[in-house]
Amino acid sequence: AIVASWDQAWSILEARNDVARFRELVNLSPEIPRQWAIANPLRALAVANEWAQILAAYEWIGAHRGRGLYLREITAPGVDTKLIERHVTVLAAFFGVKASRIEFELGFAVKPSFVRMRFEPRPLGMPNGLTEGSFRTNELGQLAVQVREALIVENEITYLSVPVPDAGVVLWGKGYDANNPASLAWLHGIPVRYWGDIDTHGFAILNRVRGSLPHVTSILMDEDTLWAHEERWGNEDTPSTAALPQLTPAEARLYESLVTDRFGRSVRLEQERIDWEWACRQLQASGG
Predict the structure, then answer these.
(1) What are the C-alpha distances in Å from 253 to residues 228, 241, 249, 250, 274?
(2) What predicted TM-score, i.e. pTM, was given to this entire model?
(3) Cβ of 15: how many Cβ atoms within 10 Å?
(4) Can you list the domains of the chain with their CATH numbers?
(5) Mutual orientation of helices 31-39 and 51-64 as an angle, nearest 10°?
(6) Mean pLDDT score, 92-110
């Protein structure tokens, strides 16, 4: 058969409706969404039912970028945050940014990070009776506090159990989020200790913390502690082998021993498996 026209071709391919829909979609669109649709016709057709709302979101975002608003504040016709979440990849492509960073890249407010902290109330200017709180990181970092030392702890239960140093604070590191409390500006002027698991990821987290706080010292992350609890060793499921340039020589030697299985296969000593009296003695001896 001879195909004499595009319309005939669309009929043979049973694509006439899709072609008509695509033409309408393209004709509705401003320049950047139009160019994206032409370059991604199948993806454009996949979202055609909500294309008008996507365009409305695009126009609102473009008009309000850089103002520090939350995307929840969008007031475009037929648009809510659920629609933005569904089509964030498309919207990010319109603006040439990564979908995972669309809010940050376009100057919208992002969900704040929080620091959970235990403390004596007086050095922080808190009312008597308050001993713990969760604070926005940026706000807590701006406080003029009279804190003399800090302890960052990886595990939540250990964080809740460890004694608060005199005129000091205990901060929950929350695993790889430990660089969040480590970003507090006032920590730079006081002694800071970090206590994490004795395993490859524990040292990777310590390395990350030290990137923000070069003067931080580790506690209970040494070979003596490891061997004193040999019967409590476990195994890491997915050990890290990353280069950790921020470790001290002693820390680096222990990390290398764990990476190379010098003590056994994927050895680890989790923080919560360390004998509590042992831990408290070491903390007290190191100044806490």
Answers:
(1) 18, 13, 6, 5, 21
(2) 0.80
(3) 14
(4) 6-105 (no CATH), 114-285 (3.40.1360.10)
(5) 130
(6) 95
